[in-house]
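MODEL INPUT / OUTPUT PAIR
PAIR INDEX: 1
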Amino acid sequence: MWYAILAEDTQNSLEKRLAARPEHLSRLQTLQNAGRLLLAGPFPSIDSNDPGPAGFSGSLIVAEFTSLEEATTWANNDPFVTAGVYDQVTVKPFRKTLP
């Protein structure tokens, strides 16, 4: 089943985010290589694809896991969690309807 992982950044997270990004992207690449990643990306803090020093306010990941427990465990072990980038992470079942 698909699960949506909604994460909210801590204040002034950009420096921590940049430092943890390679390891974070590596985990996402593993999901993608297994055909289990629907989409992933950050929420810019301002209305711009490249927010520069304004940074990001959080992230959305939609990926396939066998259970809510597995998705939650995976999300809670993300480098952005352990590096203090994310302040809060919510995992919810997701049903893809379109496209």
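PAIR INDEX: 2
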Amino acid sequence: MTFPNDDTGQVLAEMHAAGVDLTIVHPVVFFQLFEKKEQAEAMAKMLKEKAPDMQLSIHPDETPNVWDLDCTINMLPDYDAIVAQEAQLEQIAAKFNGYNDGWGIEA
């Protein structure tokens, strides 16, 4: 398998090299960060209404005064699908003064 030469492509290449089967559906987690818990809660509330199948988890980040909203979607870890989903969530997070902090697969 070959992957584009960017951060997402590199992560997928590393997963593939580690033996992760990228041809099956996995829980893919997209990480959104906020300065205030209320911002993370507001985005989570909106996502619960618009994407009821998405699993959401809010928790304090390792960095002080930062809150994480983990958005988990069962999907094929396809490069284009991940890039599109990440961009969509980043646009939504920006409306709540948050930003995207990458993604990963729950193994």
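PAIR 2 NOTE: The helical segments are 7-17, 37-50, 79-95.
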